[in-house]
């Protein structure tokens, strides 16, 4: 028996991230506490940048590596690169220490009881916990592997590697710790449940096809006839697991609570990157493995897309908390992406890739702005407190308005081009009615985005309103990059569109 | 390579907007000067471009095409034809006038005026792009994007209810715009299916789209334009915006920016969807006639002067839409000419009312009376602007209204006859407004009202002069428009009814020669 060949060069981006994550754990164990923060931040950034460079060098590759387990192709590399860029900006936000006097956004020790003497001591001594960084690296590794997975087992392992650190990260907020821990528990329970359903679906699919590899499943679709029940049950159950991760209705109920409870930099990271990874995995699974079944799964995705767009947009109208509002807005955006997915061709893949990249950038920026608007209780996330922000700090408010306009899909922002690409793909794929629903949902969504802009610019400031904290260079640069990219990709989207188009072919 | 005139025309106000925004806060006057300077510079370039088309002097202006988003076949494609020329001329003329008129309105506010002046130039650049664009995606982008600066202009400067008016304005227009987005995508997919993915207008016009699809796309485009222009029953945002925005802003909004809607109907909808336009024309004509009468009737009943002018605009937009969808050469020329004249006339009315409001501190008709005694020049300007609003010959508005009605008469007689009622009503609302505010016993609060100042004369005089000059000497402009309207109607493929008299003769009549 021959030993399997592993394509180390092609897998280097993943190996770099996982290796750095393991080293991060060792640092936690052996390096004195005071030195840990700079070392961890440095190591994390270094690993992310190194991995990004490797991804860029691999551009144009199209192979199935590691004995059929991992695909290294256009969509995978595009998504990995985007996830890495977003993660680098996220880490810059995690490392922000100027907003909380002497601390960051995370509890000094996640294990200390909220309100206990132990916690007070740790806060007083300005302890920083640095477990965040290795956890983030593991999550990023999982996210990178998820859309590259080319067999069912790798897919499931990537899902868990991505999700477990996120459950933990959600519970680490420095302020409002009970809310944060509740969010983490909710996310964990529902996430574990969805993973189980996903695994169950995998078993059905394996039972039908007798193989775990996507390519072979696709072949089995044409060979095996007469066991459609088992197969469809499998596809349906796997879809539930993936739709849960992207936050599509009716599997969206965790989103607002988790987005609200998690530390805001983590919310931004999660909102941007998880969606990217999960959509990437979903597109690969449905196009490569289940492409032959599209007439069976398209009606289901139609229904889910319509429900997701409408529920996301309508429920967002009633929100009074900015983080919850952004959560529902992210649900509506998942619906917009699903409209393109229904089309199921390479132009749809390109549209989804472009949309996810632009949405991720704007989301990260928007949540970073949320971290800056503060009052005595920490972040002032209640919408009423944002009144008159445009008068007190016009630049910050204008930046946030730019992100909101991008979410609303107003021209000259990246959001418009994204919406144009996904809707074009949908109409092209014969889903014109979905686009009509999408347009209606966009109109509803525009209302709540505009409401925030009205509040910021046209309302008089509340007498005891929040202050806008002056961030360190980390956050300032991150937000500026996000805003610049949002504007630039709205005016000259050509290069990124071109890249997405070139990257839209799956290796089989 | 020749000088890129058209791109320069757009780039100048855009640059001006950036420079105005960069003026340090607190230096309000400097910001105003910079903005007005750039608006005047744009006017000069606009005038040079116009010369080529109005008087056949070769200035080297030609169509420009640069690649923009290759993946979609979208390009930065600009061109001038008679219809766009008329509207470009209106835009470049109106902007410096509005900037001058805003000079003091902005200072009354506690806000820094530079944002308003900067946004005004942004809107000018976007409006010019819309009129010059030969690319449907580019048109759509600027059509939607201009909502945002206009929204801030209404919401940040203006009356007590301005927030409500601004949000209403934005949401109405966004809904229309999103419907249009769906239609733009549908249109693009048609071009993809034909094997030549493109947003270039001539390519799209050449497509052979089946009638059912045309209908859907027509509805998407028309909804956006009918909200923008505004056509009954999509008009309700306009009176609120007109009342709450500052007078000069309201002037720019209904005088210039809303013309993008009617421009879209004649320059995009008719050539792109000829079958659907032909079939839907009777419906649109009915809506237009309803707008004319409804707007006029509600104008009669208003007690707020700015709201009143807002309703007169709805009536006048009804005339423009009527002229476009009558689908005769005469009516279409009249409608395009009407867009320019209505712009001039509405701006004059809003600006003069703005002077009144700033003196008296009230927009209510009942707070005025006998103004012509203390301020005869102001009352005279008001009279002149009002007469242009009711289309008195030889003012330019007369000719356009006449062309629209006589052109409509060839195809839709009842519509033309009912529309004529609108003219009668316009005499009623204008003259009655004049009577109530300017004549009669001098109200105590009006006593000592100062007359027009130099800056105010500089604002009003060009408008009134233009209304008169274009009315007496319309031929270069109507000829240029006529040339562009002809091909558009050929595209629609309707048979032109036998004219009762050629257009040239009406022009002669209109001049009174």
How does the helix and strand content of chain B classify structurally? mainly alpha
Helix content of chain B: over 70%
Q: What is the general shape of chain A?
A: globular
- Tell me the count of domains of chain A: 1
Strand content of chain B: under 5%
Assembly state: heterodimer
| Integer average pLDDT of chain B | 86
Domain NADH:quinone oxidoreductase/Mrp antiporter transmembrane (chain A): 149-443
Pfam family, one (chain A): Proton_antipo_M
Transmembrane segments (chain A): 12-31, 43-71, 77-95, 132-149, 185-209, 229-254, 266-287, 299-318, 325-344, 350-373, 394-414, 434-458, 470-492
InterPro entries (chain A): NADH-Q_OxRdtase_suN/2, ND/Mrp_TM
Notes on the structure:
Chain A is mostly helical. Chain A has one domain (8-502). Chain A contains 20 helices and five strands. Chain A has helices spanning 8-30, 33-57, 74-94, 117-124, 132-145, 152-170, 177-209, 214-223, 228-246, 254-261, 264-289, 294-316, 322-341, 346-372, 389-392, 394-408, 414-428, 432-458, 473-491, 494-502; strands spanning 63-65, 70-72, 373-375, 378-379, 467-468. In chain A, strands 4-3-5 form a three-stranded antiparallel sheet. In chain A, strands 1-2 form a two-stranded antiparallel sheet. In chain A, α3 (74-94) packs antiparallel against α11 (264-289) and α10 crosses α13. Chain A starts with 7 loop residues before the first helix and ends in a 6-residue tail after the last helix. The model of chain A has no long low-confidence stretch (mean pLDDT 90). Chain B is mainly α and 513 residues long. Chain B has a two-stranded antiparallel sheet. Chain B has a domain at 280-513. Chain B has helices at 5-22, 28-55, 82-108, 114-132, 136-145, 147-156, 162-193, 201-205, 211-228, 237-244, 247-257, 259-272, 274-301, 305-325, 329-360, 376-389, 396-409, 413-438, 454-472, 475-492, 503-511; strands spanning 64-69, 74-78. Residues 509-513 of chain B have low confidence and may be disordered. In chain B, β1 and β2 form a beta hairpin. Classes of the chains: A mainly alpha (508), B mainly alpha (513). Chain B: This is NADH-quinone oxidoreductase subunit M. Chain B: Its main location: membrane. Chain B: Belongs to the complex I subunit 4 family. Chain B: Keywords: Membrane, Oxidoreductase, Transmembrane, Transmembrane helix. Chain B: InterPro entries: NADH_Q_OxRdtase_chainM/4, NADH_UbQ_OxRdtase, ND/Mrp_TM.
């Amino acid at each position: 028996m021959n030993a399997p060949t592993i394509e180390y060069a092609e897998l280097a981006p993943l190996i770099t991230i996982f290796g750095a994550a393991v080293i991060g754990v060792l640092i936690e164990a052996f390096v004195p506490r005071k030195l840990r923060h700079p070392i961890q931040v440095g190591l994390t950034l270094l690993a992310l940048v190194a991995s990004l460079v490797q991804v860029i060098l691999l551009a144009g590759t199209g192979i199935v590596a590691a004995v059929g387990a991992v695909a290294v192709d256009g969509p995978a590399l595009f998504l990995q690169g985007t996830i890495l860029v977003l993660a680098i900006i996220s880490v810059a936000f995690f490392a922000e220490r100027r907003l909380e006097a002497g601390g960051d956004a995370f509890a000094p020790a996640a294990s200390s009881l909220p309100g206990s003497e132990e916690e007070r001591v740790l806060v007083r001594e300005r302890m920083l916990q640095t477990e965040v960084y290795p956890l983030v690296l593991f999550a990023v590794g999982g996210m990178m592997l998820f859309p590259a997975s080319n067999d069912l087992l790798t897919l499931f392992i990537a899902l868990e590697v991505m999700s477990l650190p996120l459950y933990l990260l959600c519970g680490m907020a420095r302020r409002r710790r009970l809310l944060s821990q509740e969010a983490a528990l909710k996310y964990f329970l529902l996430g574990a449940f969805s993973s189980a359903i996903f695994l169950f679906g995998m078993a059905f699919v394996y039972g039908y096809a007798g193989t775990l590899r996507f390519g072979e499943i696709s072949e089995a679709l044409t060979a095996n006839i007469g066991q459609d029940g088992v197969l469809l049950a499998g596809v349906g159950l796997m879809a539930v697991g993936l739709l849960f991760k992207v936050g599509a209705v009716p599997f969206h109920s965790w989103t607002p609570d988790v987005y609200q409870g998690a530390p805001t930099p983590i919310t931004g990271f999660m909102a941007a990157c998880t969606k990217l990874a999960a959509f990437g995995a979903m597109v690969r699974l449905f196009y490569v493995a289940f492409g032959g079944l599209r007439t069976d799964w398209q009606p289901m995705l139609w229904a889910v897309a319509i429900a997701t767009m409408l529920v996301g947009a309508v429920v967002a109208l009633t929100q009074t908390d900015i983080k919850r509002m952004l959560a529902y807005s992210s649900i509506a955006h998942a619906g917009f992406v699903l409209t393109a997915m229904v089309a199921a061709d390479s132009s749809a893949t390109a549209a989804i890739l472009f949309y996810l990249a632009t949405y991720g950038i704007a989301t990260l920026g928007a949540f970073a702005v949320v971290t800056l608007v503060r009052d005595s209780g920490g972040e002032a996330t209640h919408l009423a407190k944002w009144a008159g922000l445009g008068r007190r700090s016009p630049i910050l408010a204008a930046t946030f308005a730019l992100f909101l306009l991008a979410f609303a899909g107003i021209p000259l922002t990246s959001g418009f081009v994204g919406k144009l690409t996904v809707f074009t793909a949908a109409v092209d794929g014969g889903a014109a009615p979905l686009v009509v629903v999408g347009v209606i949902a966009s109109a509803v969504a525009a209302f709540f985005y505009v409401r925030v802009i009205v509040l910021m610019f046209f309302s008089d400031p509340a007498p005891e309103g929040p202050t806008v904290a002056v961030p360190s260079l980390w956050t300032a640069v991150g937000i500026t990059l996000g805003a610049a990219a949002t504007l630039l990709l709205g005016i000259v989207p050509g290069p990124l569109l071109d890249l997405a188009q070139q990257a839209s072919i799956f290796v089989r | 390579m020749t000088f890129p005139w058209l791109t320069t025309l757009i780039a100048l106000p855009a640059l001006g907007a950036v420079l105005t925004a960069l003026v340090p806060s607190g230096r309000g006057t400097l910001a105003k000067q910079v903005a007005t300077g750039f608006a005047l510079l744009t006017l000069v370039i606009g005038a040079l471009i116009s010369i080529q088309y109005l008087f056949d002097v070769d200035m080297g202006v030609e169509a420009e095409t640069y690649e923009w988003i290759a993946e979609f076949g979208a390009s930065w494609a600009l061109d001038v034809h008679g219809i766009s020329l008329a509207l470009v001329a209106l835009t470049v003329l109106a902007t410096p006038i509005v900037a001058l008129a805003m000079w003091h309105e902005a200072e009354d506010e506690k806000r820094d005026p530079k944002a308003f002046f900067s946004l005004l130039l942004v809107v000018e650049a976007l409006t010019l792009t819309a009129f010059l664009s030969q690319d449907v995606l580019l048109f759509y982008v600027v059509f939607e994007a201009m909502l945002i600066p206009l929204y801030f202009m209404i919401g940040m400067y203006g009356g007590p209810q301005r927030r409500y008016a601004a949000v209403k304005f934005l949401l109405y227009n966004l809904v229309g715009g999103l419907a249009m987005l769906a239609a733009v995508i549908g249109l693009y997919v048609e071009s993809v299916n034909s094997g030549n993915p493109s947003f270039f207008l001539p390519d799209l016009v050449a497509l052979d789209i089946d009638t059912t699809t045309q209908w859907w796309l027509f509805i998407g485009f028309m909804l956006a334009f009918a909200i923008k222009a505004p056509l009954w029953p999509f008009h309700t945002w306009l009176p609120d915006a007109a009342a709450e925005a500052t007078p000069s802003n309201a002037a720019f909004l209904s005088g210039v920016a809303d013309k993008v809607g009617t421009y879209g109907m004649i320059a995009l909808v008719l050539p792109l969807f000829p079958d659907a336009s032909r079939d839907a024309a009777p419906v649109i004509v009915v809506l237009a006639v309803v707008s004319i009468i409804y707007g006029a009737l509600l104008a009669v009943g208003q007690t707020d002067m700015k709201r009143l002018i807002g309703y007169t605009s709805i009536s006048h937009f009804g005339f423009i839409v009527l002229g476009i969808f009558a689908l005769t050469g005469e009516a279409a020329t009249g409608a395009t000419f009407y867009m320019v004249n209505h712009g001039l006339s509405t701006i004059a009315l809003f600006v003069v009312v703005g002077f009144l409001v700033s003196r008296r501190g009230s927009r209510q008709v009942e707070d005025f009376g006998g103004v012509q005694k203390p301020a005869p020049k102001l009352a005279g300007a008001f009279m002149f602007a009002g007469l242009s609003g009711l289309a008195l010959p030889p003012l330019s508005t007369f000719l356009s209204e006449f062309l629209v009605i006589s052109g409509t008469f060839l195809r839709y007689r009842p519509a033309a006859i009912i529309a004529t009622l609108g003219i009668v009503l316009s005499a009623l609302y204008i003259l009655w407004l004049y009577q109530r505010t300017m004549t009669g016993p001098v109200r105590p609060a009006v006593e000592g009202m100062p007359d027009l100042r130099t800056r105010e004369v500089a604002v009003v005089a060009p408008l009134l002069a233009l209304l008169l000059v274009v009315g007496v000497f319309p031929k270069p402009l109507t000829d240029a428009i006529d040339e562009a309207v002809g091909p558009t109607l050929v595209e629609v493929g309707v048979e032109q009814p036998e004219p009762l008299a050629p257009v040239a003769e009406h022009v002669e009549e209109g001049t009174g020669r």
